[in-house]
Amino acid sequence: MSMLIDCHVHVGPRRRWLPAGLELAATLADDATRHVVEGDGPTGEGLLAYLENEGVDVAVAIPSGQEPVQEYALDEGEGTGRLLPFVQYDPRSVPEPGRRFADAIARGARGLKVHPCSHQLPANDRSLYPLFAIAEERGLPVTIHVGSSVFPGAKMRYCDPLLVDEVAADFPELRILCAHAGRGFWTRQVFELTRMRPNVWMELSGMPATRIVQEFPELERVKDRVLFGSDWPSSPPISRLAAQFRQMPFSEELIENALWRNAVRLFDLPIPSVSAMVADTHHPILRS
Questions:
Q1: Residue 207: which of 258, 276, 257, 155 has the closest Cα?
Q2: What is the distance between the alpha carbons of residues 72 and 64, in angstroms, rounded to a whole number?
Q3: 57 and 284 in contact (C-beta within 8 Å)?
Q4: What does pLDDT average to over the chain?
Q5: Residue 107 class from Cβ within 10 Å (0-12 exposed, 13-18 middle, 19+ buried)?
Q6: Spatial contact of 6 and 263, defined as CB atoms under 8 Å apart
Q7: Has this prediction a pTM greater than 0.90?
Q8: Could you tell me if 173 and 197 are in contact, meaning their C-beta atoms sit under 8 angstroms apart?
Q9: Is the Cβ–Cβ distance between 267 and 82 less than 8 Å?
Q10: Is the pLDDT confidence value at 155 over 70?
C-alpha cells in the first residue's frame, strides 16, 4: 500500500490571497491548476477534484494571506476527510488569540501556521507562546515558514532557524514543522536542528527533488521526521513532484516515510484495512 500526503497546500478564495501569490501561481502552475485558481480560487469542489486527480489522499490546508486572523481553511476542511485545516494568527493584533485558537481547534483545526517574514514576527516572539502552549497541550503541530520568500515586504531575517530552536527548547513536546526546510539560506541549519531536536520536523515544500538531494546528502539520518510538501498552487503538479521524489537516490523507507508514513504518524490518521481498499478505492484517506 502507498499513499500521498501533501503537507503544504494553500487554499482559500482569491480575495484572501496576496496578489503576488496569485501571480506566482499563474507563472509556475500547469493548466489544471490555473483552472482551479482562476475561478474563485483553490476552494470548494474544484480544489477537491484537483487533489483527487493528482492522487493526493490527504493535504494540509494552509492559509494564503496576511490578515491577522486566518481561519478560512476550516471551511475548506469541514466534512471532506481529505483536508487538514491549519489556522494562522498575528497575536499582536488579535484580541484573545488563545481563545480564538482554542475555538478553532474545537471547529476542526489540525495545526497552527506561523509566517514570520510576512508578519515580521519572529518565531520566538513571546506573543506566540500562549498559542504554542495550546498546540503542545492539544498535541497539534505548528508549521513555521523557515526559508526564503519572494513576496513584497517579506523580511527574511525573521525566519532564522535559531529562533525556531529557542521555541523547540522552550516547548519540548511541541511538534514543529520547518516549512521549506530552510531553502535559500538555512538548509544546513534546518537539517542540524532536525537532527538534534526530536520535536523538529523538516517539511520539504517549495524545493525541487534534485535540490533536496544536493542540499541534504545525509537526509537518511532524519528519515522519521521528513515530510513531503508541494507549496501548491505555486508549484508544478503535485503528482509530478511526488513522482520525481520517488526517483531520487534515497532508500525506499525514507521515500515512503516522507510521502505519507511520517504524516500518518504526525496527524494520527487512520489507515483503512485491506478490505476497505477493495470496497472503496476512492476513500479520501487511501489510494492503493
A1: 258
A2: 10
A3: yes
A4: 90
A5: middle
A6: no
A7: yes
A8: no
A9: no
A10: yes
